[in-house]
């Protein structure tokens, strides 16, 4: 079958996107895995289907590069909004449905996409590390002393992701360094089973953990290997957060057809 696909990236987190509003396509795990393969396929951290859903501008279906359907993808959601615009769905505020519920999003004048993330209630502490869910499960580990640039994110991330606690369900592992203005985040991503250049739900989780303003509005600037993002949110309690917005670029790279 010949498939038309579009390639998008959000701060280096890259995705294959397929317009499936006519609901004509269903892909096996093996097919998604192959499409995401960087040598035998198109190459991507994940694959998304743009679907139709009554009462929403569109539906987001997300697969990790391992081919398995996954939880929410923040950078993917932002790229899918840009793709929806590209496909002629033009809205002041987008309202779509994803695996973790409804999301709002806007495309700003600077072409950044602002994506509203699900509310967060509760952060579990493990010594100085934090565990929370921002639509996907995240482990946040502070790294001090300007060591993050040379940190072995792959080995250290894999060790936590596959330890006895997380081996079964998996977890995304974020290493965070505080900067004079904001934070620097590097992420080992579940389902990619490697470091990605950025992880939207991971950047969001890290920003919540490093909130400076203990009650009320926060904006955290986030540096990732793939570029600059920002997370805005209201801290409403010890570990409760509302009006969480993941803000950053999301760009079309190329389109093509592939036989699968
Ligand atoms: N790999 C993640 C999903 C994608 C998250 C990431 N790409 C993002 O931008 O949020 C997981 O399995 O939980």
From TrEMBL:
The active site is at 73 (proton donor), 199 (proton acceptor). It catalyses: (2S,6S)-2,6-diaminopimelate = meso-2,6-diaminopimelate. Keywords: Amino-acid biosynthesis, Cytoplasm, Isomerase, Lysine biosynthesis. Pfam families: DAP_epimerase (PF01678). The record marks 138, 189 as: Could be important to modulate the pK values of the two catalytic cysteine residues. It comes from the Bacteria. GO terms for biological process: lysine biosynthetic process via diaminopimelate. GO terms for cellular component: cytosol. It is an enzyme of class 5 (isomerase). HAMAP family: DAP_epimerase (MF_00197). Homodimer. Catalyzes the stereoinversion of LL-2,6-diaminopimelate (L,L-DAP) to meso-diaminopimelate (meso-DAP), a precursor of L-lysine and an essential component of the bacterial peptidoglycan. NCBIfam families: DapF. This is Diaminopimelate epimerase. It comes from Filimonas lacunae. The gene is dapF.
